[in-house]
């Protein structure tokens, strides 16, 4: 190991990044578009022999030159990444990996959460992390013959989201509402969570949960070892459903509700996979027709676009009063500024 030096590779390091791309391609991997830290191990001639990267609290994009495999280089790369993650306060770490490399990551302290056969394994560095999450949910388990579930980002919470929760509420004894915790939206989680609760407070049989790290968004799901875009979406959906089914078992959920998706091709494919996979687990699946506003089906993307263009008055008939009041308050000004700064606010 004394013949090698490990160091960070910055996006501005053109030669370093070219070497990363070349090494990844040798392993039939493409550099993930979502990376915020990359490290490389170099020999005495500054040739890259191993690499790995992070995005938020996930580790990804590992490769070792085939001429140097068996030298323990990947262990050193992973140790560097873990140390970096810990230094910025990320103690709960996750890895998406190929089936044939899952055993290696298990040997260095990662534990399987779920897998999609022949494609990928989702792992974490805490032995009982997911089980503890399930136990925390089970503490809020309700009794009834019809227990429903809705998962939403609510970016922001609209009358369409409210209608979806109303339909689920009326069809079930209780409904568990999971709000995506991940900060991948211009509207922070704590704001979205609060607006969901305020905008649906009239439905008395709803139980609210943050998703934590276990319901995955397209922003963090990796695509670097899945070459086909449709396969990426399908794989994320299958993995998400497998995790959801474990959550459903903990809460005795037997019915999942989703909103109709006339705009997003990604979500449409996702919903197709979800219906097929939930059927296998005997969980009912219902698509609720999207509520319409003055200019067609209500869409959070359209509402963000109106906010971006300074047309906040126009969202009044498409969001609950609580959402409108927030976006016309002083507290919303930094969020509105962030939305306006984004190049694209439409979800495809």
- The percent range for strand residues is 15-25%
The number of distinct structural domains comes to 2
**Mean residue pLDDT:** 89
Q: What's the helix count?
A: 11
Which CATH architecture of the largest domain? 3-Layer(aba) Sandwich
Explain this structure.
The protein has 348 residues and is α/β, with parallel strands linked by helices. It folds into 2 domains: 5-91, Aminopeptidase (3-Layer(aba) Sandwich); 131-341, HUPs (Rossmann fold). 38% of the residues lie in helices and 20% in strands. It is built from 11 helices and 14 strands. The protein has helices at 14-26, 73-87, 102-107, 129-138, 159-171, 189-199, 229-251, 265-280, 300-308, 321-327, 333-341, and strands at 5-8, 37-42, 48-55, 58-64, 94-97, 111-116, 120-124, 147-152, 174-179, 206-210, 255-259, 284-288, 292-293, 296-297. The strands form 3 sheets. The protein has a 7-stranded mixed β-sheet, sandwiched between helices. A 5-stranded parallel β-sheet has the order 10-9-8-11-12, with helices on both faces. Strand 13 (292-293) and strand 14 (296-297) form a beta hairpin. The radius of gyration is 22 Å and the shape is globular.
């Amino acid at each position: 190991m004394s013949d090698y030096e490990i160091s960070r590779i910055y996006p501005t390091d053109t030669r370093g990044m070219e070497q990363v791309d070349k090494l990844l391609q040798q392993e039939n991997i493409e550099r993930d578009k979502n990376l915020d830290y990359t490290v490389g191990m170099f020999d005495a001639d500054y040739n890259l022999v191993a690499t790995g990267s992070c995005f938020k609290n996930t580790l990804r994009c590992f490769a070792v030159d085939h001429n140097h495999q068996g030298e323990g280089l990947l262990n050193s790369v992973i140790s560097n990444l873990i140390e970096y993650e810990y230094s910025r306060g990320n103690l709960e770490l996750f890895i998406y990996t190929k089936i044939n490399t899952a055993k290696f990551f298990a040997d260095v302290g990662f534990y399987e959460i779920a897998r999609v056969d022949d494609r990928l394994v989702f792992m974490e560095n805490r032995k009982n992390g997911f089980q503890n999450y399930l136990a925390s949910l089970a503490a809020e388990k309700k009794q009834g013959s019809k227990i429903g579930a809705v998962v939403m980002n609510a970016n922001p919470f609209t009358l369409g989201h409210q209608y979806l929760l109303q339909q689920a509420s009326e069809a079930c004894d209780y409904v568990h509402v999971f709000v995506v915790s991940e900060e991948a939206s211009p509207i922070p989680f704590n704001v979205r969570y609060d607006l969901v609760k305020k905008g649906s407070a009239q439905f008395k049989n709803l139980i609210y949960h943050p998703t934590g790290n276990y319901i995955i968004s397209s922003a963090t799901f990796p695509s670097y070892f899945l070459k086909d875009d449709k396969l990426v979406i399908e794989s994320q959906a299958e993995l998400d459903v497998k995790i959801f089914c474990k959550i459903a078992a903990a809460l005795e959920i037997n019915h999942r509700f989703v909103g109709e998706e006339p705009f997003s091709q990604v979500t449409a494919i996702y919903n197709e996979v979800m219906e097929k996979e939930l059927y296998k687990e005997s969980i009912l699946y219902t698509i609720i027709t999207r509520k319409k506003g003055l200019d067609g089906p209500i869409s959070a993307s359209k509402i963000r676009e109106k906010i971006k263009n300074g047309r906040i008055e126009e969202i009044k008939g498409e969001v609950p009063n609580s959402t409108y009041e927030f976006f016309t308050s002083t507290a919303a000004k930094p969020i509105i500024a962030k939305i306006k700064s984004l190049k694209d606010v439409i979800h495809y």
